[in-house]
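Practice problem 4.
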């Protein structure tokens, strides 16, 4: 495959947003799955590592980078800052030598929340940054107060004007200062922003009540490989000793634990024995525990390969929590599964305030779910019926596909612009496992 210089989103031969938004997935349910599926690199790690590459005044190479709309958008934002990018399959070469920390364009940043990850690295490297506020999204208000409070604790003055964050560090060398930071909530994004900012700060920074997700550990390992001094990533206390500059690196992104979890549920919901490779069991502990509680068996076959053995589906309760609690990004997929289980289950979404909108679409397929605040009370039913349904956000779209795989008849899933943000080629991966699924363009 020839090297592709990324200078605009359409360069990546992706069907246009219009084409994609008109395309739908048609799924004929009740086909058993079999075989192996290989998991792609993690979206939520690749995005922050791309932002992290802004810390480095040299070139970086990232491997195992998935082809997703969100990755293309982050590429477009980096390109607008002056970064040179070349993508070759899942290898991304990044050259952030000559960049302008105040050039992030409003229109693109507003389409991708993760673009706000650039604020920490740019402020740390240049002592100044101007970047639009990310704003809310389908699943919640998503404020960035904790990010900003932490940067202020490190000596930055932050002004928000007309939706734009202006942050500056005064003083001769315009360098952030190490600080003791306590996060009111173990926010993934805030932990990542402050970890990156602290790598080039003067002195020592500690982040208490830090997020512990595997993506945080991957970011820390990436920065350490560039020469940073970071201790305790993956625990609730991270210590960073600032260094003067970082150097080039060649680094591979971890596999996507949420994609792996989604495929494990695909096996469980279709009562199929499948294997999922490039799936790190340690990253999936709460997901595996709940699949076993529901009646499946998961065998760790080593070499990051997990085998799912299906079982009679039983009800269970789930509460989403920060890692190592049950991931909110798997909540919708498990709701689809519990629709088919024997008995009553309760799912409580505690991380995001608006992440239960898939309930109405599952009800359209015949699910018996009642909502009470942020709790969904699910009574298992013998079967769901295929129907035309609309995705309301990224993980909701995955849940509707899973429900369609197990439902009687045909399901049509619309709103695929959500799906394509975070799943690489999911319909081909499912088809290789034996699913009857097709992406077709709907004529208006
Ligand atoms: C990351 O979002 C992920 N996104 C999300 O994945 C994931 O759901 C989330 O972590 C939790 O695991 C990426 O990594 C790109 P948070 P992030 O800051 O960093 C509140 C997916 O489906 N909060 O931990 O935005 C916030 O509103 C996506 O792939 C504040 O109140 O998550 C939310 O309710 C969706 N103030 C809660 O904390 C702040 O300053 C968790 O947010 C920051 C966050």
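Answer key:
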């Amino acid at each position: 495959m020839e090297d592709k210089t990324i200078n605009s989103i359409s360069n990546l031969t992706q069907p246009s947003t219009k084409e994609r938004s008109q395309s739908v997935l048609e799924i004929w349910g009740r086909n058993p799955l079999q075989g192996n599926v290989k998991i792609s690199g993690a979206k939520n790690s690749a995005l922050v590592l791309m932002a992290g590459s802004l810390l480095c005044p040299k070139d970086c190479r990232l491997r195992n980078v998935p082809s997703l709309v969100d990755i293309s958008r982050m590429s477009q934002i980096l390109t607008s800052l002056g970064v040179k990018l070349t993508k070759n399959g899942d290898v991304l070469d990044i050259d952030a030598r000559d960049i302008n920390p105040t050039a992030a364009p409003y229109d693109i940043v507003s389409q991708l929340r993760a673009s706000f990850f650039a604020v920490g690295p740019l402020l740390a490297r240049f002592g100044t940054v101007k970047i639009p506020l990310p704003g809310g999204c389908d699943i919640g208000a998503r404020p960035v107060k904790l990010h900003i409070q932490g940067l202020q604790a490190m000596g930055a003055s932050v002004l928000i004007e007309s939706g734009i964050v202006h942050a500056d560090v005064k003083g001769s060398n315009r360098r952030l200062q190490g600080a003791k930071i306590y996060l009111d909530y173990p926010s993934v994004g805030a932990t990542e922003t402050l970890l990156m900012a602290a790598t080039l700060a003067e002195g020592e920074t500690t982040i208490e009540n830090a997020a512990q997700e595997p993506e945080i550990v991957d970011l820390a390992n990436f920065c350490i490989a560039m020469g940073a001094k970071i201790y305790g990533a993956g625990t609730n206390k991270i210590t960073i000793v600032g260094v003067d500059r970082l150097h080039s690196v060649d680094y591979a992104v971890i596999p996507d634990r949420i994609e792996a979890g989604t495929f494990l549920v695909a096996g469980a919901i279709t009562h199929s024995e499948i294997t999922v490779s490039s799936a790190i069991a340690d990253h999936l502990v709460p997901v595996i525990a709940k699949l076993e509680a529901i009646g499946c068996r998961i065998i760790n076959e080593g070499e990051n390969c997990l085998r799912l053995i299906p079982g009679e589906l039983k009800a269970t309760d789930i509460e989403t929590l920060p890692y190592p609690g049950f991931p909110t990004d798997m909540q919708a997929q498990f709701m689809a599964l519990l629709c088919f289980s024997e008995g009553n289950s309760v799912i409580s979404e505690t991380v995001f305030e608006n992440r239960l909108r898939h309930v109405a679409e599952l009800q359209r397929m015949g699910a018996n779910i009642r909502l009470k605040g942020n709790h969904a009370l699910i009574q298992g039913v013998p079967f769901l019926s295929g129907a035309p349904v609309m995705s309301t956000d990224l993980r909701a779209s995955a849940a509707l596909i899973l429900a369609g795989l197990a439902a009687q008849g045909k399901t049509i899933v619309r709103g695929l612009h959500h799906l394509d943000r975070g799943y690489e080629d999911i319909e081909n991966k499912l088809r290789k496992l034996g699913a009857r699924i097709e992406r077709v363009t709907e004529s208006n």
